[in-house]
Amino acid sequence: RPFSSSQASGKLPGSDLREIDAGSSAEAVREEEEEEDEGVEFGTLSNKFSSRKYYHKTTSRFQNLKLQEGEEEPERKPRRGPKNSPYWYFLKCKALIKEDKLAEALELFEVQMLKEERVQPEESNYTVLIGGCGRVGYVKKAFRLYNDMKKRGLTPTEATYTALFNACAESPWKDSGLQSALKLRQQLKSKNEELNLITYHALLKVCALCSDLRMCFDVLKEIVHKGHVLTAETFSFLLMSCIKDSENGFRYALQVWKEMTKLGIKADSHIYNLMLRAARDCGIGDPVVASEVLLRPAHDNSSQLRLAPGRQKEKVKNQKKKGSESAAAVQLDVEAMEKQLFWESSVRPEEPIQQQNKDVNCAETEPAALDSPSVAHGRTGALMRRGQNKTEQEQARLSQKLHFCNLPNLLDSRMADAAVVSLGTAATPSDRLALMGDAEGFLNKMKNDNAEPNIKTFTLLAELVGPQSPSESSLLALLDQHKVKVDVTFFNTLIRKKSKQGDLEGAKSVLPALVKRGLSPNLQTFCNLAIACHREKDGLQLLSDLKRSGVTPNKYIYSTLIAAAVRQLDYSYLTEILRDMRNNQVPPNEVIIRQLEFAAQYPPKFDRYKSKNPYLEKIDGFRGYYYRWLKVMAGEETPHPWEKYRTAKRAVDDHEEEAVQEQPGQ
Prior knowledge:
Elements: H1 2-9, H2 13-38, H3 60-71, H4 86-98, H5 102-116, H6 123-135, H7 139-151, H8 158-169, H9 174-190, H10 197-210, H11 213-225, H12 232-243, H13 249-262, H14 269-281, H15 287-294, E1 305-306, H16 312-321, E2 331-332, H17 334-341, H18 343-346, H19 350-365, E3 375-377, E4 383-385, H20 390-402, H21 429-434, H22 438-448, H23 455-464, H24 470-473, H25 475-481, H26 488-500, H27 504-508, H28 510-516, H29 523-530, H30 536-548, H31 555-568, H32 571-584, H33 590-600, H34 619-632, H35 648-653, H36 655-660
Antiparallel strand pairs: 1-2, 3-4
Helix pairs in contact: 4-5, 4-6, 5-6, 6-7, 6-8, 7-8, 8-9, 8-10, 9-10, 10-11, 10-12, 12-13, 12-14, 13-14, 14-23, 23-26, 26-28, 26-29, 29-31, 30-32, 31-32, 31-33, 32-34
């Protein structure tokens, strides 16, 4: 050992230098090899022999999905700091929905609450958003939130079901909304879910707006069977369904009114406005049937009220406790009411004729005095007294104009049975308003029921009163008498009414009264004036007045002017309207294109060589300009009803579904 150690320690200095040089050269060789290895990638050898990059089956759809995945936004990181509570989000979403910011509320819930802060939502968070979607008819999103709610294990409440039914009722596509509501109703029945009266009202609203009156009666039977007490709101949905029947809706509405008053329910302002809508939009149907069911004595209909089975003692006790709820002890016989409403389908055709002859014979045999209260209908549907000569009849008409409240009012249950012998056709809205006491009698009936008329009531009355009648001229005085603040819509209604009669000067005479009330005309005002612009001179004058006022006409004004020009077959007028549209760069919508396509067509039997038609002399010039006009004008696409309530990401996801209008899944 000493020898070896001495040998080791006794090395020459030159030998150490050689070893160092050899080590450094070896390290340099290793570094060069590593540099060469860095330039070589594993698996690149196949590039020399094949250009294929994918060895699995693929399609263009998978390639698009791969690209879409690459374009997705990066995953949002949870926010640092204290989290907001679910109740805070509930209040925030509720405030946004109240401000008509549904898209912001959905963004707040889905992005900030669920993705960023990852707060566990509660039932109220979903219900308030479903309610917001329901008010605008966003059915698809409402049911998506409902399904997500169930997946999270949250239990829906009655408010949730009410919001879902309301979304179906407000849907832009009524058939799809009705199917979704019926499917939800079937699911609730299978789960034995008990619904309250508010939820039943939402279901009634679906049936009223999306179906017919018979389906409303099916829901009404279930409401009565469950023991719920009917209210004025219940009958308001029945009246909505009556208005959908343009032929018999006014008679149905009067019958529903009578049943409501028999239950002791007083109508509110909304009910009265619905009655005015029924008088405006619906007819009375067959006068013989209407006379039979509306003028029948009250004791004949007493069978429609009955005590609820099994609830007599309970409701009698409640009646003793609260005298105002006297109607609670009485239950409506819905089947008898439905049978009476659809009386013409169950009665034999010979019976109305026999009844009519019987009424006529009775009217002839009974002596009628000059001041007898019994009245009969004239050919126009107006009420006039019997047994008077022409002079006395004219005096009676004048007195009736001065005292409208003396007219028989079918809304008044205390009206004498002999006050009306029979009903006429009541073809015009003013005739149907006369059956409810005309404007003054109608407002007096509202006063008796403590129902305050609003501006909507007077706007509907402005549409119903006869043209050039004393009621029309006294509407502004009645507005001041009831202390109702007038708005532009009321004056627009008066202008529209006069314009439809072709009275352009009369329509313009309303404008000073509008300005006197401190109001300014809007685009709807000019659109109503355009209805009466049948001549090219009047239409171009209206457009120049708008330009002088700094207002650009919209598509509705142009559409109204085009309709007036098409009715007159004035092709030079049409050309000037199109030229003005081009100058103002107003894109035409689908309605305008349809109007112009109709105007550009030759009549079916038009032969320019056989006979001369002065109305169609300029059609060729219009057709040439119209087709050139189409090439330079950009059309307006009809926006989707739900477009403004969706973010860009949801719009892409829903694009395929909205094309086919699928009903929302549940």
